[in-house]
Specification:
single chain; alpha/beta; Spore Coat Polysaccharide Biosynthesis Protein SpsA, Chain A; 2 domains; 13 helices; globular
């Protein structure tokens, strides 16, 4: 049995160095394990750093994938390696000591076709006073074992080759594409696996540490991430059958009504209540908008400035884009009100 662990990377030379070092330190001569760095067209020093770090190690390899997108990079690992199992961690993650050994133990003991474990955050900059670790902890199941529902995280994901062949690899319509934030290639893979009747295995001791950069500790990021995750969720699960501009307007009205209540309230930190109580409403908005944009999911052209822009328009007979654009001024004032 051979295991291949892949790091798919794009322009993260500093974080990649940490991720690569954490895995290289775990390669043992007696184990049939190889390590791949899949460079997805990086323009920084990714290639030079990787080649320098793996010099003299015949089980670690640098691979260039010119087709832009996380799914292309993930799929490339299956094309270049003859391994029986493939594991993935992100280029901004760290594999704690014993990670590879734990993965091998799971494979030998249970032979799951798809398995993973939790993700915990690590930081290189001070957290804002309101930011909680739980905002970046990813635990999909409370216990270790077999599951016929749920999800796994793409930065701690292991796949048996025959499953990959059976369901067709990662869907290139999903996954971050260069600097474009598109989520869901991992969720889509898990969804198709479960839909085919194959259970997933989850192990609470198979842990990955994931970097939280400063931009993720920002309230605007929570809105954008929830919005994008909502769009991905809709395209994977088809959770919304029928949508309308009026429905999007209704959800935006609900969001700002709830936000107004939080700002007026003295209960708890404004930032924490924002993240924990109402940010998910933008996930619902993303699902509705994705339903409206079935034809062109990836190229919606929306940015943070478009997504978060005033409640004041009537709910009928308005353009979707003009309604989104109208939110900007109010949101800018609101975030200025409690930015620190």
């Amino acid at each position: 049995m051979k295991l291949c662990v892949a790091i798919c990377t794009y322009n993260r030379e500093q974080q990649l160095e940490k991720a690569l070092k954490s895995l290289l330190n775990q390669l043992k001569p007696a184990e049939n394990v190889e390590l791949l760095v899949i460079d997805n067209n990086s323009t920084d020093s990714t290639k030079e750093i990787t080649l320098d770090m793996i010099k003299g190690n015949d089980r670690a390899h640098y691979i260039l994938e010119k087709k832009q997108g996380t799914s292309h990079a993930r799929n490339r690992a299956f094309e270049v390696s003859d391994a029986d199992y493939f594991g993935y961690i992100d280029d901004d993650a760290i594999a704690p000591i014993g990670f590879i050994n734990r993965a091998l133990r799971i494979i030998y003991d249970y032979e799951p076709k798809l398995f993973g474990g939790p993700i915990y955050p690590y930081y290189t900059e001070p957290k804002p006073h309101w930011f909680k670790d739980e905002y970046e902890i990813r635990i999909h199941h409370k216990n270790s074992g077999w599951f016929s529902s749920g999800n796994l995280s793409g930065s701690n994901l292991f796949i048996k080759r025959d499953l990959f062949n059976a369901i067709g690899g990662f869907n290139i319509e999903f996954g971050i594409d260069g600097k474009v934030m598109i989520f869901g290639e991992d969720t889509d893979f898990v969804h198709r696996t479960l839909s085919s009747g194959v259970p997933i295995y989850y192990d609470l001791e198979l842990v990955i540490k994931h970097w939280v950069p400063k931009y993720k500790m920002n309230l605007l990021y929570f809105l954008l991430a929830n919005y994008k995750m909502g769009k991905s969720y809709q395209n994977i699960n088809k959770s919304v059958d029928i949508s309308s501009q009026a429905k999007v307007a209704e959800l935006l009205d609900m969001f700002f009504d709830d936000l107004n209540e939080i700002i007026k309230s003295d209960e708890g930190q404004i930032e924490n209540r924002f993240v924990e109580d109402i940010a998910f409403e933008f996930n619902l908005i993303g699902q509705q908008i994705s339903c409206l944009q079935r034809i062109d999911y990836k190229n919606d052209g929306l940015t943070v400035a478009d997504i978060i822009k005033v409640k004041s328009h009537k709910k009928e007979a308005i353009s979707l884009r003009s309604y989104l654009v109208s939110i900007y001024k109010l949101t800018k004032l609101l975030f200025k009100r409690f930015s620190r």
